[in-house]
Amino acid sequence: MQKKYKKNIFKNGLRVISVPMQNTRAVTVLVMVGAGTKYETKDTNGISHFLEHMFFKGTKKRPNTLKVAETLDRIGGEYNAFTSKEFTGYWAKVECSHLDLALDWVSDILLNSQFKEKEIEKEKGVIIEEFNMYLDTPIALIGDLWEKLLYGDQPAGWMTLGRKENILRFRRKDFIRYLKTHYSSKNTVICVAGNLDSADVEKKVRKYFSKIQDIQPSSKPSVVEKQTVPNSLVYFKETDQTHIALGVRGYSLFHKERFAQILLAKILGGFMSSRLFISVREKRGLAYYIRTVSESTTDTGYLVTFAGIDNRNVGEAIKIILKEYNDLKRKRISNSELKKAKDNLRGSILLSLESSDVQASFYATQEILTGKVLTPEEKIDQLEKVTPKDIQKVARAIFKPENLNLVLIGPFREKQRFNNLLKI
Questions:
Q1: What confidence tens digit (pLDDT) does each residue in 288-327 have?
Q2: Which of 123, 215, 273, 293 has the smallest count of CB within 10 Å of its CB?
């Protein structure tokens, strides 16, 4: 397949990963920083995401958004940024002859942005509209409400977009303070994937990121999980379709059962022939979209099914999903069904990694969260070791009444009606 990746840690703690890929003209530069919503306080909630926006507003070399954007637009490059609960990323994907330009561009916005007050004030309007768009998009909002239900009033349960009152209050000094305490060589990973030479990549990274600050970054508080009975959150909205999230607390990135949890999610709702797709959509026609996902972070995890259901059929759909959860506890799955899930995961992993930006994300995300990397082959090998007995063991461990959580977005106000359905 591909050559083996190379990882090097510079004296200042900066981690550099290079991933050579054959048969591609593309190269992606991804800089990932260990700072996100979980590193915020109530007063700073939203600043990680707002700061991400501000890196595109101008440097001394590229003094405005137009100059920043057209640098890579002129060569057909792709670029963007993203903020999550535990990290923030900045990337550029270009034709391989433009690697120097991509490194120069990413390092320039990260190390030399000016954060002008007038740009901050303008961007507040942009982020408020992004916030409003999110509130008007139930299929996106429900993920945030799900984590709000699980984790409550702590950073893990807050919206990455933040609070509107915070967004309107932030000033330049707030961004500078956050930058100086959270952005450091010690919690930064730079991954370059594609048509490249590893030794050349390390040399260039040293050059372009020589000014990165070397401080001890602030840490995040541990997530506190407390639940003894089933719980629900009902978000009233006049919709033609009720969006639901129904799932359970699960395993973190460091738990040995997380690979079984990944496969369990696949079996339930990971493809068109999965159990829930057949039972909810194909057999009964209750949903257009239904999917089950497994999420693991550094200190927590969950398995959850998302679906869009006709308002009249919500109760029926909830019962069917819970029945499928319960069936995996009661009866051990067949070897052939487990093999289908494994083969599906193997194929999707390998196909996605045909792209240099996905390669960069695959390696950088593991490194920033766990400090170590599993190659695709090593990850697949861990998945292959999972047995039907392991699937049933995990199902029995996580599908418990006191673990159940349900979020609804739809024309409902009463909570107890849905709480009464949470039986397994």
A1: 999 999 999 999 999 999 999 999 999 999 999 999 999 9
A2: 273
Q: What are phi and psi of 30, to 5 degrees?
A: -125, 125
Give me the count of residues in the chain: 424
* Closest of 183, 177, 419, 211 to residue 315, by C-alpha: 419
DSSP-assigned beta bridge partners for residue 88:
33, 83
Q: Which domains does the chain have, with CATH numbers?
A: 6-208 (3.30.830.10), 231-419 (3.30.830.10)
Tokens linked to 196 = 């490249």
**Phi-psi category of residue 371: left, alpha or beta, with phi > 0 → left and psi -120 to 50 → alpha:** left
Q: Counting Cβ atoms within 10 Å, is residue 74 exposed (0-12), middle (13-18) or buried (19+)?
A: exposed
- Tell me the one-letter amino acid at 316: E
13-20: average pLDDT: 98
Tell if the pTM clears 0.90, that is, is over it.
Answer: yes
What residues are annotated to the active site?
A: 52
CB atoms within 10 A of CB 161: 23
Phi, psi of 339 (to 5 degrees): -65, -40
d(CA 341, CA 276): 14
